[in-house]
Amino acid sequence: MSRPTNRRQDNHKIDWHLPSISSSASAHHMSRELFVLTYGALVAQLCKDYEKDEDVNKYLERMGYNIGIRLIEDFLAHSAVRKCRSYSETVDVIAQIAFKMYLGITPGVSCSNTSENEFFLILDKNPLVDFVEELPAGRSSLCYCNLLCGVIRGALEMVHLAAEVTFVQDSLKGDDMTEIGITFTKKLEDKKHRRNK
Amino acid sequence: MSDEKGRSPPRRPRKPRAHAALPGRRATPLPGYRGEKRSSTPAELRLPSCPALTGTDMAIFSVYVVNKAGGLIYQLDHYAPRSEAEKTFSFPLDLVLKLHDERVVVAFGQRDNIRVGHAVLSINGVDVSGRYTADGKEVLEYLGNPANYPVSLRFGRPRLSSNEKLMLASMFHSLFAIGSQLSPELGSSGIEMLETDTFKLHCFQTLTGIKFVVLADPRQAGIESLLRKIYEIYSDFALKNPFYSLEMPIRCELFDQNLKLALEVAEKAGPFGPGS
Q1: pLDDT in tens, B184-224
Q2: Are the CB atoms for B58 and B220 separated by under 8 Å?
Q3: B253-269 vs B223-233: helix axis angle to the nearest 10?
Q4: How many CB atoms are closer than 10 A to CB A63?
Q5: Which of B93, B106, B181, B256 has the fewest CB atoms in 10 Å of its CB?
Q6: Is the bond leading into B249 cis (omega within 30 degrees of zero)?
Q7: One-character DSSP codes across B39-70
Q8: Are A73 and B206 in contact (CB < 8 Å)?
């Protein structure tokens, strides 16, 4: 390990001298093409493996969930956000900080008129579908970016917020824009009273 | 209160310690002062009387990581100040030994460096495990037999076994929960620091419920940022390892290595680090 020089440390920062392999996308400019192509290959392989669109969607969502439960800690460790006090604050953080950090985009946020627990993220630019024009024939109900829904659901669950996340509108399916709907169900506060997991 | 004679502070004899001699460390007479010629001992800097703490470096003693359910998933003993004493005894033994918690401890007869509560660590150089020696003899029986004397015994503070550490971690988890509920205001952060005269326990709970606990020397600064750094290291090397399952004990080499590096950096930053 290299020895730090003997200079006085800046009072506001410690130079940790660790190898810089932290992986938040803002710190390292990984090739976006590689990421988008990898995602495309993943979806293509799942389509080959499973006949039904619902299965592909389900497995994409599950994979996203497994990513989300780990990604949340990375997000919290690198972004230092404080505990959110309301659902709308939470969705704002997801849109403005998390999406920006990992995908480089900032979706718009809107709240539903009917229910105060329902929010929408409007993605005008989605890097995952950069190279996709339209869904293949016979795959009309495939949610191509369903991984994102799983990621958001997994991440929210780890901070004790149960939510259902789906694609309300998808431009790949012919809608005007891509919208992700987040519906908060019950706050998982009383976990300690539940013995069955 | 300055000393008129202008004496420099007395140099304490360096006791050999397990983690001494990291390359390049220079001994300074008192911790916290770098390279200054000092003519008096300021009254407010009272050195702790425990011999193990009059070292030159501030130490971080250990790191614990507790999962959401209160189970210990990682533990590292970075530096353990050990005061041990080895002496040769002849029959009869003037220390009173008794069995306590499956260990042979000194109950009475404190002398020299052997204190009440110290356990028998080795007999004639052979390590003792619990109440039996390495070759299966019972310690108390062995020491009761005059034919075995003179015998050389090493006493010291007994190390915590891993079961005990697990218990302590879950107890701390419960105390933490009680602490948050006792708070008069809603949304308390829980226990952040526990202070004693020989160590300070710093705790950081993430929004997901994982707790990082660091036990350090009371004079050590910069633990807040160290806790944040440990969180980053956890999120990088433990969580991103695809074969690591959440909430399970962390057995990742990279996590160990980077954690040790971070601890060394934090120790070197010393009392001039940011925050507390």
Answers
A1: 888 788 899 999 998 999 999 999 999 999 999 998 888 99
A2: yes
A3: 160
A4: 17
A5: B181
A6: no
A7: -S--TT-PPPS-GGG-SSS--EEEEEEE-TTS
A8: yes
Contacts of B208 in chain A (CB under 8 A): 72-73, 76, 158-159
Residues on chain B touching A188 (C-beta within 8 angstroms):
none
Query: What gap in Å lies between CA A150 and CA A173, rounded to an integer?
Result: 19
Query: Can you tell me the distance from the alpha carbon of A153 to that of A166, in angstroms, rounded to the nearest whole number?
Result: 9
DSSP for B120-164 reads EEEETTEEEETTEETTS-BHHHHHH-GGG-SEEEEEEPPPPPHHH
Q: Which residue of A has its CA nearest to B188?
A: A83
Residue contact B273–A9, C-beta within 8 A: yes
pTM to 2 decimal places: 0.73
DSSP lists the bridge partners of residue B65 as B74, B212
Q: What SS3 state is found at B231? A: helix
Rounded to the nearest angstrom, the gap between the alpha carbon of residue A104 and the centroid of all alpha carbons in its chain is 12
Measured between alpha carbons, how far is A33 from B27 in angstroms, rounded to an integer? Answer: 54
- Helix extents (H) in chain B: 139-144, 162-182, 223-233, 253-269
